[in-house]
Amino acid sequence: MEAIAQDERRDTRQESRQGAGQDRAQETLYLRIAQQLEGSIRAGTLARGERLASVRELARQQGVSMATVVQAYRTLEDARLIEARPRSGYFVAGRPGRRAAEPETTALAPQAQPVAVSSLSARVMGMAHEPGVVSFGAVCPSADLFPEERVRRAVSRAAQRHRASLCRYPTGHGAAEFRRAVARQALALGCQLDPERIVSTTGCQAAISLCLRAVTQPGDVVALESPTSFGFLELLESMHLRALEIPTHPRHGLSVDALSLALDTQPVKAVIAVPTLSNPLGSSMPLAERRRLAQLVAQRGVALIEDVLYNPLCEHDEQRRAVRSFDPTGHVMLCGSYSKTLAPGLRVGWTDAGRWSAEVRHLKAVHSGSYTELMELALADLLMQPGLESGFRHLRSTVAARVADARELVAESFPKGTRVTDPPGGFILWVELPAGSDAMALYEACLRERICIAPGSIFSTTGRYGHCIRLGLGGRWDEAQRRALRRVGELAQALMREGEPAG
Ligand SMILES: Cc1ncc(COP(=O)(O)O)c(C=O)c1O
User: Fold this and answer.
1) 337 lines ligand 1 (CB under 6 A)
2) Rounded to the nearest whole angstrom, what is the distance from the C-alpha of residue 309 to the centroid of ligand 1?
3) Are 408 and 365 contained in the same domain?
4) CA of 225 to the centre of ligand 1 (A)
5) What is the model's pLDDT at position 68?
6) Which stretch of 106-110, 196-200, 244-248 has the lowest confidence by average pLDDT?
7) Separation of 343 CA from ligand 1 center, angstroms?
8) More exposed terminus of the chain, fewer Cβ within 10 Å: N or C?
9) Residues 250 and 103: beta-carbon distance below 8 Å
10) Are residues 409 and 380 in the same domain?
11) With a 6 A CB cut-off, is 307 part of the ligand 1 pocket?
């Protein structure tokens, strides 16, 4: 309902600006009908592929004009919730094809492990960016998902307006305009941040790195979701930290109960979590669990490094709220960037490190000197422009349609018994092949056909995900990608057949 409700607010604003001659009652009517239908689709009352009432039928049922119904259907089409099929009418988007089951909660790692994933992850990522490779390996969204022209204009405007910034050393811990813009955006996370405490960084990864450095020493234990982003594991490896993987539910995220037990028995110094759209599971913690997590780390005096990079991509309003919003104690170190949602090329991220702000400021000064003023000013400009939220909404619906498509392809082409996540947003799928499958062998077979996938083993230190793969669906999405994904499934089937005992 939320997408269209926001449209209504936007449209209403536009209407009051444009004023003249619009029939307001008519407009509200079509939005009401669109919202009702959206609710039925999201609740599953109207299933994928199901035919909707004809324009005439619905107009009669609702006692409105056919033009109003057409407008309602167009609104739902724009939100990619329904599709018009020539000479057949309107249908709920997505085919009613096979659906694969979702994976189950992952298991607790018995103890903290040293990390050694970087050589394999570097190899995988190297291939993910090779020209001519169809890549599901990385989670880099392609340029067509972003307002490229607006970003370009913001950069040139910043260069025009702030000429002096090009030839001087910036001082401080980030451009004031950028820190203010981040604080304003953080209201959408439910957080009131003091711009003075925000430190800018070179992306979210650098923010997490600074926070980790501020709260750990080599040899310390860091708890994370399982599976987790290999970028986090690489950071731990480079800092000689040990990883303790905590059971994670593919929908509800990190288990707070399991974390609590782990904190009882292990000397955990910090927790890294992505409570909204974790990578690679795509899980999003319910609000009550976010509150419990904030309370737990505060009670135990442990730092929680919360990564909010993907929050704007979550389809559920309430799950965009940060754990930090429940923490008055400063134990949550908030880290973010706009690399997946607005402008990856600007390479600007940020952190508000709570009670460790002074340490993080110092570390930032030591490790990267200052900041790239021009890019921060450009990003601040983009963040303060109207239309940012509607851009996120558009991004959400675009990637939702392709992720739904990819899930169906997995259900159709991968071996029987394959499970796949169903995340409430983002562009990552985690695929669990039947037990005994060898995701590394699949990775090699795919590479021979110039397709790149990410094998599950780089997302953990436990060796538990040797039969899993991650699919990054942020790149182009067209028939070539669909064909390639089907081919991954066929190769997985062929490898399974090879592994079966003869006769
Ligand atoms: C969970 C998570 N955090 C951080 C990053 C890195 O973000 P940035 O590109 O802003 O450094 C990624 C990149 O894939 C990620 O998945």
Assistant:
1) yes
2) 7
3) no
4) 15
5) 92
6) 106-110
7) 13
8) C
9) yes
10) no
11) yes
Is the minimum distance from the CB of 354 to ligand 1 under 6 angstroms?
no
137 lines ligand 1 (CB under 6 A): no
Ligand 1, atom 7, residue with closest C-alpha:
204
Report d(CA 126, CA 144) in Å as an integer: 22
Residue 106 in domain: no
| Beta carbon of 275 within 6 Å of any ligand 1 atom | no
- Residue 365 sits in the same domain as residue 401: no
Q: Check pocket membership of 207 for ligand 1, CB cut-off 6 A.
A: no
Q: Does residue 169 share a domain with residue 51? A: no
Q: Predicted confidence band at 74 (pLDDT cuts at 50, 70, 90)?
A: confident
Which range, of 91-95, 240-244, 248-252, averages the lowest pLDDT?
A: 91-95
Same domain (yes/no): 376, 400: no
Task: Please report the pLDDT score of residue 15 as a whole number.
Answer: 38
Question: Coil, helix or strand for 336?
Answer: strand
CA–CA distance from 417 to each of 378, 420, 436, 460, 498 (Å)? 48, 10, 12, 22, 17
CB 489 within 8 A of CB 412: yes
The residue-averaged pLDDT of 343-357 equals 96
Split into its structural domains, the chain has a count of 3
